[in-house]
Design brief:
The protein contains 1 helix and 8 strands. The protein has about 140 residues and is mostly beta strands. A 4-stranded antiparallel beta sheet has the order 1-8-7-6, with no helix packed on it. A 4-stranded antiparallel beta sheet has the order 2-3-4-5, with no helix packed on it. Strand 4 and strand 5 form a beta hairpin. It is elongated, with a radius of gyration of 24 Å.
Length: about 140
């Protein structure tokens, strides 16, 4: 009985000291540095991150967002195609969404996220010229 009591006290002491010292297991998330924002028209590209990346807004694949001035049950989604190239020639074609996942992707040490797509569709027609705003962040290793 005494051994059982000592075992229970030891286990509780170890558990309490782990909690008190703040030991808990967390999943590692990549840390980011300051982000850079860029706005591009469909078909245009720009060099970013001190020349380490080139991002090209290729086109809009679909746009089912709720038109301006219309009451919709759902917001809808627009999906765009983006090509990102790093300075070593690595290229990745990404499909990013406005209201669904994925809204962002990574190439090497950089995270690219779609912030917004303009203009909103109109009731009777889709926009002729789209502009996308992106956030680019360098990930810390």
């Amino acid at each position: 009985m005494r051994n059982l009591f000592l075992t229970v006290v030891t286990i509780l002491s170890i558990g309490a000291s782990s909690i008190a010292s703040g030991h808990r297991q967390e999943t590692a998330k990549p840390e980011t540095t300051k982000s850079e924002t860029v706005t591009l028209r469909a078909g245009n590209q720009k060099r970013l991150a001190r020349g380490e990346l080139t991002i090209k807004f290729v086109n809009v694949i679909e746009d089912s967002r709720c038109p301006a001035g219309v009451n919709c049950i759902q917001a809808g989604n627009a999906r765009i195609q983006v090509m990102v190239t790093d300075r070593r020639g690595g290229t990745k074609m990404m499909e990013l969404n406005t209201n669904k996942e994925p809204k962002g992707d990574q190439l090497g040490r950089y995270a690219i996220n779609l912030v917004s797509l303009a203009p909103q569709p109109m009731k009777d027609r889709k926009p002729a010229r789209y502009t996308a705003k992106f956030s680019i962040q360098r990930l810390r290793s």
